[in-house]
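Before the break, one more example. Copy the sequence into your notebook; we will annotate it together after we see the structure.
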Amino acid sequence: MDWFTFDSDITNWVVVGLVLSLLELVVPGVYLIWFGFAAFAMSILVYFMPLILSTQLIWFAIFSAVFALIGLYIYSYIFKRTKTPKEYSLLNNSAAQYVGQTVTLAEDVVDNRTKVQIGDTFWLATTDKPLKKGDVAKVTGVKDNLILVLE
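Here is what the structure looks like once it is written out:
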């Protein structure tokens, strides 16, 4: 059991792998686990083939790149297969939810801009038509996720 001392390269790589894996739980994102896997792979490599530190670091960089590519492939595969239900497609795009609805102008159109009230919120809107306060218009699109385009 002399390989389980902290002066052993094997133990050091296992500790690095554990630290990186535990940091995955604390740090936002899902990438540190792949470097942890690379450190665990290094501990296996050093167990079978003792190497000097510079060679170990080169191998760790290679293993890190390989595991990062594996992670990228796995995540892209998962995201491609995951379909967003139609009712949630506009969840984080609140302005786009109003396309197709009719709204009442809260102000007169000045320089092609006005405000419309939807519920208890006022939205900036743009239109080419000379509409007045109280006129009804239809939302036809969204510009910069803030401005409703009216027809």
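The radius of gyration is 29 Å. The chain has a mean pLDDT of 87. Try to locate both features in your own notes.
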